[in-house]
Specification:
By secondary structure, this protein is mainly α. Helix content is 61%, strand content 5%. Keywords: Lyase.
Length: 378
C-alpha cells in the first residue's frame, strides 16, 4: 500500500547527512517492521501460555506484513495520539478482520511497550554491521601498527613538535580506542531489553511475568528485571556506547586531518574528494565525514541521557524526545564506522615526510615495546 512516491515526497532521505549510514536498518520502514515484530511476538507469547488462541496468533502473523500498511497514513495519524503505535494497532486489528482474533491484538501491552521494544530491536539490528566494521578496523590498525612499529615521526603536543615517536604507536592507539568501542557496543547490544510492563508498569495481565519472558525471547532481546518505562538505563547505556564509538572514530579522523595538511603531508586519503572551485585539491572527505559525525553524537547522547529524569510511572515528553536522536546517533555511528574502514584501507603513509618533518632529536623511547604490548590485546 506504500509506494515509493509516497515515501519520497517531502521525505528526508539524507541529502544533508552524507556521513550517515544504516538507513535501511533504521528508516521508518525498519521501525514499522520492528513494531509489527513486537506485536507478533506478544501474541505468540500469550498463545504459548494458553492466553490467546493459536489461530489468533497465526492471523496476526499473516496480517503483520510491512507492505500491507500505509506508512504515510500511519505517520499522519500518529500526530493525534502522539506515537505511531496507536494507529498501527487500529490497522492491525482491522487487518486481522475476525472480531474474536482482533481482540487479542496488543492485549497486555501499552504503546510504549511496543515502541520501546521496536527501537531496541532496530538498535540491535543496526549495531550488527557496526560491530563488524569496528572489528575490521581494529585488524587494519593492527597491521599498520606492526608495519610501522619503528617508523619515526614527530609527536606533537599542544600543536607543536615535542619528541620523536613512531607512527606504529599512533596506529596502536587508534586500535586501542577501536577495541574499547567494540567492547562497549558489543556489551550494550547483548543487554538491549524488550519492554512489557502494561499501562503503568505493573504487568497487570494474568501471567504477566511469563508472557514478558517469552516476549523478550521471541524478539531476541534481554529480559529486564523491571519494566523500564521510566528507568531509562538501557537508553543511557546505548547512548554512552554510541558516543564513545563516535569519539574513538573521531580521534582517528582528527589525526588524519592534521597529518594530511599540505604543509605536513605525512598521511593522505588514497581516494580523496574534489572541490567545486579548486580542481587541484584532494580533500580528505572520509575523515571529514567521520569528524562531523563525532561532533554530533555526543549532543544526541545528551538528549538521551536527559530522559533519565522522567516523572511518574510513564513520562510526558521525556520518552518522546528519545526517538529521533537515537535513530540519528545510530546512523551517524554506522556511517562513521563504515567510512573509517574505507579510510584505513586507502590510507597512504608517507614515511619519508614523517622523517623529513622531524625537527626534534632523540630516540623514540619505549614506543616499539608499547606497540608490541598493545598488539597482544584482543
Amino acid at each position: 500500500m506504500t509506494s515509493d512516491d509516497d515515501l519520497t515526497r517531502g521525505a528526508d532521505l539524507g541529502l544533508l547527512s552524507p556521513m550517515g549510514s544504516a538507513w535501511e536498518d533504521t528508516g521508518d520502514l525498519a521501525v514499522l517492521r520492528a513494531m509489527l515484530d513486537a506485536e507478533v511476538a506478544l501474541i505468540r507469547a500469550r498463545a504459548t501460555l494458553g492466553l490467546a488462541p493459536p489461530e489468533a496468533a497465526a492471523a496476526v502473523e499473516r496480517a503483520a506484513l510491512v507492505e500491507l500498511f500505509d506508512l504515510p497514513d500511519l505517520i499522519r495519524r500518529s500526530r493525534s495520539g502522539g506515537n505511531p503505535v496507536i494507529p498501527l494497532v487500529e490497522d492491525l486489528r482491522a487487518a486481522v478482520a475476525v472480531g474474536e482474533h482482533a481482540s487479542h491484538v496488543h492485549r497486555g501491552a501499552t504503546s510504549q511497550d511496543i515502541l520501546d521494544s521496536a527501537l531496541m530491536l532496530v538498535s540491535h539490528r543496526a549495531l550488527g554491521p557496526v560491530l563488524t566494521d569496528l572489528r575490521t578496523l581494529a585488524t587494519m590498525f593492527a597491521g599498520l601498527a606492526a608495519e610501522h612499529r619503528d617508523t619515526p615521526m614527530a609527536a606533537r603536543t599542544l600543536t607543536q613538535q615535542a619528541v620523536p615517536t613512531t607512527f606504529g604507536l599512533k596506529a596502536a592507539g587508534w586500535r586501542k580506542l577501536t577495541l574499547d568501542a567494540h567492547a562497549r557496543a558489543h556489551a550494550v547490544r547483548l543487554a538491549l531489553p524488550g519492554q512489557l510492563g502494561g499501562p503503568a508498569g505493573t504487568l497487570e495481565e494474568p501471567h504477566g511475568l511469563a508472557v514478558a519472558a517469552r516476549f523478550c525471547a521471541a524478539l531476541g532481546l534481554a529480559e529486564p528485571v523491571l519494566p523500564w518505562h521510566v528507568l531509562r538505563t538501557p537508553v543511557a547505556d546505548l547512548a554512552n556506547a554510541l558516543a564513545f564509538a563516535a569519539g574513538a572514530l573521531g580521534k582517528f579522523a582528527a589525526d588524519v586531518l592534521v597529518l594530511s595538511r599540505t604543509e605536513i603531508g605525512e598521511l593522505s586519503e588514497g581516494v580523496g574528494g574534489g572541490s567545486s572551485s579548486m580542481p587541484h585539491k584532494h580533500n580528505p572527505v572520509r575523515a571529514t565525514m567521520i569528524a562531523a559525525a563525532a561532533r554530533q553524537v555526543p549532543a544526541l547522547a545528551a538528549v538521551l541521557y536527559g530522559s533519565l529524569a522522567a516523572e511518574d510511572e510513564r513520562p510526558a515528553g521525556a520518552w518522546h524526545a528519545e526517538w529521533q536522536p537515537l535513530r540519528t546517533a545510530l546512523r551517524l555511528v554506522a556511517g562513521a564506522a563504515r567510512d573509517a574502514v574505507e579510510l584505513a584501507g586507502d590510507l597512504r603513509v608517507h614515511a619519508e615526510r614523517m622523517h623529513a618533518n622531524l625537527t626534534v632529536h632523540g630516540g623514540t623511547g619505549a614506543a616499539g615495546a608499547l606497540v608490541d604490548r598493545a598488539l597482544k590485546e584482543e
